[in-house]
Amino acid sequence: MPSSSTTVVSKCTIHPDQKSTLKTLKLSVSDLPMLSCQYIQKGVLLNYPPYSFEDLILFLKTSLSASLSHFPALAGRLITDQDGHVHILCNDAGVEFLEAKARHLDTNTILSPIYVPDCFKEFFTFDRTLSYSGHSKPLVAVQVTELADGVFIGCTVNHAVTDGTSFWHFFNTFAEVCKGAKKISNTPKFTRNTVFNSPAVLEFPVGGPKATFSGEEPLRERIFHFSREAILQLKYRANNGTLLQCAEILGKQCNDHLKVVNGDANGKITPVLETVLKNNRTTEISSFQSLSAQLWRSVTRARKLAPSKTTTFRMAVNCRRRLEPQLHPYYFGNAIQSIPTLASAGELLASDLCWGADLLHKNVVAHGDATVRRGIKDWEREPRVFPLGNFDGASITMGSSPRFPMFDNDFGWGRPLAVRSGRANKFDGKISAFPGREGNGAVDLEVVLAPTTMAGLESDPEFMQYVSAIL
């Protein structure tokens, strides 16, 4: 395991290069629960740039300043008004920028271990900082760490201000500006006139909320890579029950198609067949749901839970497209809700993959406009922080998304070698999904588990048959 001793060389505050025209942005019912969560910590490992590290630092500072002008909320601070509502004060107070060195480490040394080495935790600042601290601390910190043959750019952002969609929008814009873009591709939308805007007040004790998980338990962290081929195999397995059902119906139609089409023998799609095909399009279990179901089964088996124990698979979903009318795809802030799917350990493991995958799929599909609005109303009746953690030892929490454009950020000398995260918001059962570097539907799962559970997962043939080496 690579030894960790990253040295911070300098620290400064970066301000937007233009003054903000925004005044305040009120936190929504999707933002407020995140005040008890730690700042998001995500970053990219890059090859060494084709110029000096000193020049890189200069370029990054200038680009960060320009990028903040497009995202003025990130250069502000949190304030709480006399009525208890929390806002982002867009006052151009600036973000923290750190230059660090770990030249004893090289890219191969930190990417080759089976388990993610602790050195990555030192590539971020604001460690274990709760988002409520944005009342006094910057909402963003960027740390640039020089390695022997590469650079790690780590970005730490207040989770009450951004979700994953907004985080990667900002990060990719930062890269785009650094590469030399005069105009950014996608402008954030800071509207607060949405269903998430609410008069509800979330009350906090003096000094703010506490983290909802200990963060002290021993953990193992590993990146599992799934190629496009492996994902398609899982999807086929998960959908096999549905496909067989369709085949039976189609078989009946082929044998009796003259009656179905009222005498039309020209092989046209019949009304019944059209219905079957339409239903199959809407009921197909997705690749990601199939992979999630396999993980749910295998982690549950590795935990050796009693058959009667209820297990929970919690999945964060982006609500921007689930609402009617839809939110703008670049709505800035949190627009997420958590979908819990429950099953007894015994039933989950006694059934085939299709059973668990279908449970996940039905919950995700059902989470439309009405469900999103119902979740908002439920929260308004009982405002509360997001309960991050694994309280019963039988839960899995899936965050991030393989749809996020994590490898689309080119700072000027090529795509990232890898995406990694810091210590933030990690506990037994916390999973983060990343796209595979090769794209084309490949997925990486960052899996955080108790050591004994990780060992059980690694010896689970049903799970490991789909895992391949990271390219």
Quick one: biggest sheet? 6 strands, mixed
Low-confidence runs of at least 5 consecutive residues = 244-250, 252-270, 272-281
CATH H-level name of the largest domain... which superfamily?
A: Chloramphenicol acetyltransferase-like domain
Basic shape: globular
Helix content: 25-40%
What fold name stands as the CATH topology of the largest domain?
A: Chloramphenicol Acetyltransferase
How large a portion of the residues is in β-strands, by DSSP E? 15-25%
Structural class, from secondary structure content?
alpha+beta
Q: What's the domain count? A: 2
Kindly state the number of beta strands: 15
Could you tell me the mean pLDDT?
A: 92
- Element string (H = helix, E = strand): EEEHEEEHEEHEHHHHEEHHHEEEEHH
Q: Strand order, biggest sheet? A: 1-6-7-8-3-13
Quaternary state, please?
single chain
- The CATH architecture of the largest domain comes to 2-Layer Sandwich
Q: Helices, strands, pairings?
A:
Blueprint: E1 7-14, E2 24-26, E3 40-47, H1 53-70, E4 77-80, E5 86-89, E6 95-102, H2 107-111, E7 140-147, E8 150-157, H3 164-179, E9 220-226, H4 228-255, H5 257-260, H6 271-283, H7 287-303, E10 310-318, E11 336-344, H8 345-350, H9 353-366, H10 369-381, E12 395-400, E13 418-421, E14 430-435, E15 443-449, H11 451-458, H12 461-464
Helix pairs in contact: 1-3, 4-6, 4-7, 4-9, 7-9, 7-11
Question: How would you characterize the overall build of this protein?
Answer:
By secondary structure, the protein is of the alpha+beta class. The chain folds into two domains: about 5-210, Chloramphenicol acetyltransferase-like domain (Chloramphenicol Acetyltransferase, 2-Layer Sandwich), CATH 3.30.559.10; about 220-230 and about 285-405 and about 425-465, 2-Layer Sandwich (Chloramphenicol Acetyltransferase). It is built from twelve helices and 15 strands. It has helices at about 55-70, 105-110, 165-180, 230-255, 255-260, 270-285, 285-305, 345-350, 355-365, 370-380, 450-460, 460-465, and strands spanning about 5-15, 25, 40-45, 75-80, 85-90, 95-100, 140-145, 150-155, 220-225, 310-320, 335-345, 395-400, 420, 430-435, 445-450. Helix 2 links the parallel strand 6 (about 95-100) and strand 7. Helix 1 crosses helix 3, helix 4 (about 230-255) packs antiparallel against helix 6 (about 270-285) and helix 7 crosses helix 11. The protein is globular and about 60 Å long. Pfam families: Transferase. One of its GO terms (molecular function) is acyltransferase activity. Keywords: Acyltransferase, Transferase. It comes from Tripterygium wilfordii (Thunder God vine). This is BAHD acyltransferase DCR.
